[in-house]
Amino acid sequence: MQQKITVALIQQPPVFMNAKASTAKALEFIKEVTEQGAQLIVFPETWFPGYPVWLDYSPNAALWDHPPAKALFRLLMANCIQIDDKHYQAFSKAAEENNCTIVMGAQERVGRSIYNTIFYFLPNGTVDKHRKLMPTYTERLIWAYGDGSTLPVVEVDGIRIGGLICWEHWMPLARAAMQQQQEHIHIAQWPMVKSANLIASQSYAFEAQCYVLAVGCTLTKQQMLDGLSTVCETDEDRTGLEIFEQIPIENEALILKGGSAIIHPDTSFLIEPIYNSTELIVQELDLSKLSEGNLFLDTAGHYSRPDVFTLTVDARPKSNITFEH
After folding, report:
1. Per-residue confidence at 324, pLDDT binned at 50, 70, 90?
2. Which is it for the CA torsion 137, 319, 189, 313, positive or negative?
3. Quick check: pTM over 0.90?
4. Could you give the number of structural domains in the chain?
5. Under 8 Å CB-to-CB from 312, ≥6 apart: which residues?
6. What is the rounded distance in angstroms from the CA atom of residue 212 to the CA atom of residue 183?
7. CB count, 10 Å around CB of 220?
8. Is 316 inside a domain boundary?
9. Residue at 313 is within a domain
10. Which residues form the domain of 150?
11. Whole-number percent of the chain with pLDDT over 90
């Protein structure tokens, strides 16, 4: 296994709700951090084209048959990533050309549904993904449920990289399924990394005896308005702006405040949580001593007690309709 790796956490806002402009912005960040030696580049939860923060803060986001909410969802659907579309291909090409792994949090369109997805764009041109198993609370208004077919750990130069999204870190069996795959580096994607989210990320680092990259975004209300305005072409489109305008904070105030951090397997911080600023965080990780903690804890091995506890993960893709010919 490669003993050292340089990682980058992208604590920057996208061009909110604009897929084309967010792709261009992401490629700029990727170029900048790879010039600093980054080999693993990690974006926050649904960075592309933006976390649906209005669900938590806008008072009319969940009104039944509300025209602004419907317009906003339509614009979101039009700006999601799809497998093999031009945005997907751009990130895959960037991973190959820069010889890096890009971990992109994205809203992914599949048919007429949207998933909260981690895409792993690998330097050899392959791509893997994880779709969030359980959207949390208001997120269920817009996201479909993932299934057990997308719980991968990817391997690059012998380094095993996996990830979970937000509140999946409080799903004990999801954690167990990932830890059984022997991660060296775990990606913890969040909209922003609040104090409880940090605790979950630190706990995961110790439980799995791996490095955890906890990554969150920064975003102001004005950036939401400005980004959405760039994809509004009609008066009907512009009604979606009402959802953002009704969020009860000042336009220049941060709704998402970052909090990205890099956590050692002993729960200490290699990079302390950074709040209230945009950052490109670059750090080298030393993997050579990861096994030291397994002297006392290996949740996938000598500390697992398979004679008492077992877990079966159904890794088959699920569909409610199957056509047989």
Report:
1. confident
2. positive
3. yes
4. 1
5. none
6. 10
7. 18
8. no
9. no
10. 4-295
11. 97
Kindly state the tokens that stand for 279: 């950052």
Tell me if residue 71 falls in helix, strand or coil: helix
Amino acid residing at 305: R
Query: Among residues 170, 165, 146, 140, which one has the least CA distance to residue 55?
Result: 140
Q: How far apart are CA 273 and CA 79, in angstroms?
A: 30
Q: Is residue 250 part of a domain?
A: yes
Cβ–Cβ under 8 Å, residues 201 and 188:
yes
What's the CATH code of the domain at 122?
3.60.110.10
pLDDT tens-digit map of 102-135: 999 999 999 999 999 999 999 999 999 999 999 9
Where does residue 176 rank: exposed (0-12), middle (13-18), buried (19+ CB within 10 A)? middle
Phi first, then psi, for residue 131 (nearest 5°) are -105, 130
210 domain residue, yes or no: yes
What are the DSSP calls for 241-301, one per residue? HHHHHTSSS-TTSEEEEEEEEEE-TTS-EEEEEEESS-EEEEEEEE-TTGGGGGGT--TTT
Catalytic site positions: 45, 132, 166
Q: Residue 169's pLDDT band (boundaries 50, 70, 90)?
A: very high
Position 189 confidence tier, pLDDT thresholds 50, 70, 90: very high
Token match 């291909």: residue?
89
